[in-house]
Amino acid sequence: MVFPQKFRYLTIGFQKITIEPIPEPRQAGNTFGFTVWHGSPTLMTAPHAHNDVEVNICSGELVYTSAGRITVIPAGTPCAFWGAKPHQLIHVQPGARFAFATVPLAQFTSWSVREPLGEGLLHGRLLLGEPLDDTDARRLLDRFEQWGADLARPRPLLHRAVELELQGLILRMVEGTWTETLPASGRASRDLDRASQMAAFIAENATADIRLADVARAIHLHENRASSLFRQVFGSSVTDYLGQFRVAEAQRLLLTTDLTSAAVAASAGFQSLSSYHETFVRVCGTTPTRWRDGHRLGVH
After folding, report:
1. pLDDT tens for each residue of 231-244
2. How far is it, in rounded angstroms, from Cα 8 to Cα 139?
3. I want to staple 97 with a disulfide (CB 3.0 to 4.6 A). Which of 59, 111, 195, 251 is the partner?
4. Is 68 left (phi over 0), alpha (psi -120 to 50) or beta?
C-alpha cells in the first residue's frame, strides 16, 4: 500500500534499524520539555496539566476526561492539544501501541505552525487528524519511535530534523477536525458521571467567584461528599483542579493580550493578586511576568 501523500515524506530515505526502548518521560515542573516517546500507555491515576502542545497517536482507542467531558480518540487518529488544562487518560485498548510528542509552548510559538493552529489550541480545542488505516498508523508510530531515538542522541542536526518533521505532521493535521468532545455514551459510572458534572461546572465557571460549596451545590451533594467523590474519581482536589483551570486561562491571556497582571488575575477568576501569584508559581514554577516575557520572546 502506498503511504498517504500527506505523511509520505516521513518515510523517504530512512533505513529500518533496531531501536532500544526509551523510558517514559517524566514531567519536570510544568513541562515535559521537547520530547518524543513510544511504548505501551498507562492510565493516569489523576488529572495532570503541562505547558506543552502534545501530539499523539495510538493503534487503539483512547478515552480522556477533561473539563467534565469524555473525549474518545479513535484508533489510528493523530491528535493535538495544549495540555495546560487538567486532563486524564482513563481508557486505552489493551496491547495498543502509543506514541506522543510534547513541545513546550514557548518553542511552539516560534514555529510557523502557530498561525493556523495557535488560536484553536489556546482555547482548549482538540485537533484530530484524518484517521489512518492499520498499515499507515503503524508507519506513523514507527516514525514517532525513530524521533524518540533521534532526540536521545547528542546530535543537534537530528534534533532539528525531528522539529521540522513534527511541524510538517502538525500542518498536515490542519485538514482534520477541531472538536471539544466526541460521543461516549454508556462509558460513565454513576460516580464518574457526578464527578464529571463537577468538573464541567468548574470548567464553565472557573473565571467566576466559585468555591467548593458552589461546586457541591451544582450536583446537590454535601461539600464533604462532593470533595471526597471528586478526589476518589480524579485523584485531585476540587481546589487544585479549579486552580489549574484558572492558571491555563491566565496563560492564554498573558500570551494573547497586553492586560496588566491585575487584569489578568481578575479575568482568570482569581480573587486576589496574592492568590494569583501563589497559584501560578506553584503550577508553572515561575512568575506570571517571567512566563509572559519568555513565551513572547519564543525562549526555549
Report:
1. 887 778 999 989 98
2. 10
3. 59
4. left
pLDDT per residue as tens digits for the range 47-57: 888 889 999 99
Q: Would you state the cell numbers that stand for residue 158, as one nine-digit string?
A: 537530528
Query: What residue has cell string 467523590?
Result: 229
pLDDT interval class at 67 (50, 70, 90)? confident
Residue 56, φ and ψ in degrees, nearest 5: -140, 165
Return the number of other C-beta atoms located less than 10 Å from residue 238's C-beta: 25
* DSSP helix/strand/coil, 127: strand
**pLDDT for residue 19:** 56
300 pLDDT more than 60 = no
Question: Does residue 262 register a pLDDT over 50?
Answer: yes
Residue 87 CA, distance from chain mean position: 7
Is 47 in contact with 235 (CB distance < 8 Å)? Answer: yes
- For residues 79 and 100, give the distance between their C-alpha atoms in angstroms, rounded to a whole number: 9
Burial 110-140 (b: 16+ CB within 10 A, else e): bbebbeebbebbbebbbbbbbebeeebbebb
Residue type, 153: R
Amino acid symbol at 84: A
Cell numbers standing for residue 150: 533521534
Q: Which three cell numbers stand for residue 220?
A: 446537590
User: How high is the pLDDT of residue 57?
Assistant: 96
Cα-to-chain-centroid distance, residue 12: 29
